[in-house]
Structure formats: structure tokens, C-alpha cells
Specification:
mainly beta; seven-stranded mixed beta sheet; globular
Length: 121
């Protein structure tokens, strides 16, 4: 189970910090990531981190602006969103990676309900 929090409405250029708390499995054994889905669009892997936190993936659209981090002791995955743009508006959810077919081409088996991020002036 994943429970996300931290979403909200911000103006362009603003920041948010999303958090995801996991339970029911050994968090440190899995790569975990953030996926977003905007209205009318398919899901997009935004960022992912491997089990130890030493290897990360970012979508080109969020590189430099977003930072993913995990705390295995607290079963928590975070995503810092800076310099937000209207096109970042989406439902953001965390997901457990079970297969990697390439950068950003991940499959997951469990995901959370998500937290809404809206960027608008």
C-alpha cells in the first residue's frame, strides 16, 4: 500500500514536496518511482530510484527541476518539485517497479491513489 500526500495548487514557478509512505512489503527491496497522469494523457514515469538510492531516473521534462529521494528506514519516497510549470499539472502517484525495459520504460505492480498537483496562475 502507498499513501501519497503533499499535492496542491501553486502558481507557475512555485514548489511542492510530495511524499509517499509505503506499507505491507519490504520497501528497501524494490525500486520505487513517481508516475504522473494528466487529463487526456497516458501515464508518464517522472522519476524513479533504485533500492539503495544510488541510481535515479528522471524524465527529460523534469530534469533539474525535480528531485527524488527515499528513506528506507521510514519506508518513504519523496519528490521535490521546483520551478513548476502549467504542464506539470497531473495526478502524481508512487509505484513499485517490477520490470525495467529501458530508461523510463518501467512496469509496476502496485501504486497509490495519488495526489493532485495543479499549476495555474
Amino acid at each position: 500500500q502507498f499513501v501519497e500526500s503533499g499535492g496542491g495548487m501553486v502558481q507557475p514557478g512555485g514548489s511542492l514536496r510530495l511524499s509517499c509512505v509505503a506499507s505491507g512489503f519490504t520497501f528497501s527491496n524494490y525500486d520505487i518511482g513517481w508516475v504522473r497522469q494528466a487529463p487526456g494523457k497516458g501515464p508518464e514515469w517522472v522519476a524513479a530510484e533504485n533500492t539503495g538510492g544510488g541510481s535515479t531516473y528522471y524524465a527529460d521534462s523534469v530534469k533539474v527541476r525535480f528531485t527524488i529521494s527515499r528513506d528506507n528506514a521510514k519506508n518513504t519516497l519523496n519528490l521535490q518539485l521546483n520551478s513548476l510549470k502549467p504542464e506539470d499539472t497531473a495526478l502524481y502517484y508512487c509505484a513499485r517497479v517490477i520490470r525495467k525495459r529501458g530508461p523510463g520504460l518501467y512496469e509496476y505492480d502496485y501504486r497509490g491513489q495519488g495526489t493532485q498537483v495543479t499549476v495555474s496562475s
